[in-house]
Amino acid sequence: MAISPTWSDPLSPLSGRRIFVVEDEYFLADDIGRACRALGADVAGPVGDLDDALRILHDGSILDAAVLDVNIRSEMIFPVARELKARNVPFVFTTGYDKVAISPEFHDVPILEKPIDLPAMAQRLAALIADPHG
Questions:
Q1: Pick from 32, 40, 33, 52: which is nearest to 6 by CA?
Q2: What is the pTM of this model?
């Protein structure tokens, strides 16, 4: 994926933010990480399994937002999502599945369908960071 040079603006809304990426498809995880870094973000991960995701959640570091694949190696990401929600860390889900696969408790979480539009993902993350409740 080509990243626009305007993305690396130091005034980017993701500049200096720590974005947690949980995605088990290697190339997609790499693309998401690169897109976030191009906007000045620090990336936690990407990680491709639930145990690694939980380890990052419990390492004491600050997370500003997250991109979570709904299904990680046949496990649902909901334990990670619940903890992020409890901490008021905004996040988006990515999925190739129908919206019905999402637990009702997360009906308010934005869903990005695969294949992901990376610029739209970055804009959504920036909006969530700016207004986590809107």
A1: 40
A2: 0.90
